[in-house]
């Protein structure tokens, strides 16, 4: 594992109708939706963590605590940034933020947990047999 505090990753997208609150069902207006913003933030944190893990390992999200502070119209680019700020055993804590072309649209924290992917899936699949 080569993860270290201070690692950063960015994910971006151009807002399309399918990313809107109207399409997602989280609102009636055609602007970048909060769930999509959170997903983009999680994607940045996921990739930040994965870059420092061996192939057999991955991470799962454990919590998200963010504010969505400004609307972004369809057609504008959004960039999410994740910075690893704490490693506590298998627990990872990230500062996450999102920006459109005019400034900050969201910020907060996101937790992830390191798992051994195959063992995790085997345990999850046991739920179907219960």
Automatic annotation (TrEMBL):
Signal peptide: none annotated. It comes from the Bacteria. Residues 18-117 form the Fluoroacetyl-CoA-specific thioesterase-like domain. InterPro entries: FlK, FlK-like_dom, HotDog_dom_sf. It holds the Pfam family FlK. PANTHER family: BLR0278 PROTEIN, THIOESTERASE DOMAIN-CONTAINING PROTEIN. This is Thioesterase family protein.
